[in-house]
C-alpha cells in the first residue's frame, strides 16, 4: 500500500478508517484503537460526528508516533465563515489533543465557505494544517473554488461507490490536481452491496468479498477510501485489499452498475440544505 502524494507534496495513505456514526465515545475509541492495531494510519473524523475527543483519546493511547498517523477532520456548516473557521480549527485541535492536523476539510459547500477557506489557507501557512480541502463539492462548486483561492484543495471527499461513480467529477479533480476521497464507499449498505451478485462473482475469483471488491475498484481508480466498521473482523478485512488487482474486464463490469445519482443525499433538495444549516453542533 503506497502512499498517495497530494498536490503540495504531503503523503497520504490511500486507505483510512472512518468514524461516522460510531455511537458512544467508548466504542469509537476502541474502534480507532483496533483500526490502528491492524495497520490503518489515516483516521477520518469531523466536528459534526461529535467524536473528535474519542478519536483523540485513541490516538494518545495507540502507541504509534504522531508523525506516522494522518488525521483528518472537518469544518461544519455552522462555522462556515472566516472567523468561524479560525475558532473551529482550534476547537478541533483541542478536542483531538493535537498540535496540527494532517488534513482539514470543509464538510459541506454551504454558507461562507470561501471565507472559511481563507482562514484555512492562513492556518495552512502557519503549519497548523498540513493540507486543506473540501467535501461534497460537486464539479461546478469545485471549479469555482479552485478558480478563486490561492491554495488549490488537496482533496475533495465525495460519495463514490460502484452505484454512484461520478466519472465527470473525477476528471475535473484530475484537471486541478485534487485527490478524490470516497465517503460511503459501501453506499451505506444500499443496493445490497455486500451480497451483490456482480461484486460477489468477481470476488470469488480472488477469494475476496463483495465489500473488498468495491474498495479495490475505487482505489484502482485513484480514489482514497475510508471504510467504517465497529466489528474487528470487518475492520481487518477492509484493509485486506492490497494483495490482488481487478482486471480491466472486472472494472468494466463494475462500471455497468452506475445508476448516475445518489440515493443517500441530494444537495439539490432545499429541505436537505435547510436541515444541514439547522444542525448546530456547539453553542
UniProtKB/TrEMBL annotation:
Q: Where does substrate bind?
A: 107
Q: Which Gene3D superfamilies match?
A: NADP-dependent oxidoreductase domain
Q: Name one GO molecular function term.
A: oxidoreductase activity, acting on the CH-OH group of donors, NAD or NADP as acceptor
| Annotated site (Lowers pKa of active site Tyr) | 74
**A Pfam family per the record:** Aldo_ket_red
NADP-dependent oxidoreductase domain location: 27-257
Q: Which residues form the active site?
A: 49
User: Mind listing the UniProt keywords for this protein, alphabetically?
Assistant: NADP, Oxidoreductase
Q: What is this protein called?
A: 2,5-diketo-D-gluconic acid reductase
Amino acid at each position: 500500500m503506497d502512499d498517495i502524494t497530494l498536490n503540495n507534496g504531503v503523503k497520504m495513505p490511500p486507505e483510512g478508517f472512518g468514524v461516522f456514526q460510531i455511537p458512544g465515545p467508548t466504542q469509537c475509541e476502541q474502534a480507532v484503537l483496533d483500526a490502528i492495531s491492524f495497520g490503518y494510519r489515516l483516521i477520518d473524523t469531523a466536528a459534526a460526528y461529535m467524536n473528535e475527543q474519542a478519536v483523540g483519546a485513541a490516538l494518545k493511547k495507540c502507541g504509534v508516533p504522531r508523525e506516522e498517523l494522518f488525521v483528518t477532520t472537518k469544518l461544519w456548516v455552522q462555522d462556515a465563515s472566516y472567523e468561524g473557521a479560525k475558532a473551529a480549527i482550534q476547537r478541533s485541535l483541542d478536542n483531538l489533543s493535537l498540535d496540527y492536523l494532517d488534513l482539514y476539510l470543509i464538510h459541506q459547500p454551504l454558507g461562507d465557505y470561501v471565507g472559511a477557506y481563507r482562514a484555512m489557507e492562513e492556518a495552512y501557512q502557519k503549519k497548523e494544517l498540513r493540507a486543506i480541502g473540501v467535501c461534497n463539492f460537486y464539479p461546478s462548486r469545485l471549479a469555482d473554488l479552485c478558480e478563486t483561492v490561492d491554495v488549490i484543495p488537496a482533496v475533495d471527499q465525495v460519495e463514490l461507490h460502484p452505484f454512484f461513480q461520478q466519472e465527470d467529477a473525477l476528471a475535473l479533480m484530475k484537471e486541478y490536481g485534487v485527490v478524490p476521497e470516497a465517503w460511503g464507499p459501501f453506499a451505506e449498505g444500499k443496493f445490497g452491496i455486500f451480497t451483490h451478485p456482480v461484486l460477489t462473482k468477481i470476488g470469488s475469483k480472488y477469494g475476496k468479498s463483495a465489500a473488498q471488491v468495491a474498495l479495490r475498484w475505487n482505489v484502482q481508480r485513484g480514489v482514497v477510501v475510508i471504510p467504517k466498521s465497529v466489528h474487528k473482523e470487518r475492520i481487518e478485512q477492509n484493509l485486506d485489499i492490497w494483495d490482488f488487482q481487478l482486471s480491466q474486464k472486472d472494472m468494466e463490469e463494475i462500471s455497468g452498475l452506475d445508476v448516475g445519482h445518489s440515493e443517500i443525499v441530494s444537495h439539490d433538495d432545499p429541505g436537505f440544505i435547510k436541515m444541514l444549516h439547522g444542525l448546530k453542533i456547539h453553542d
